[in-house]
Amino acid sequence: MLTHAHRKHYEVAILIAGDADYVPLVRAVKGEGAGAFTQQFGGAGVR
Hints:
Elements: H1 2-6, E1 12-17, H2 23-31, E2 35-40
Parallel strand pairs: 1-2
């Protein structure tokens, strides 16, 4: 996901996850200029 964001292969990523393990990845993707929509279950979230 991060490699493709860096290479500008997409503009928006959609991630559905069950925990907060992907929070650093989503932040890095956003840092590359790509949009990221997330849906978490169990109260975890990226702000």
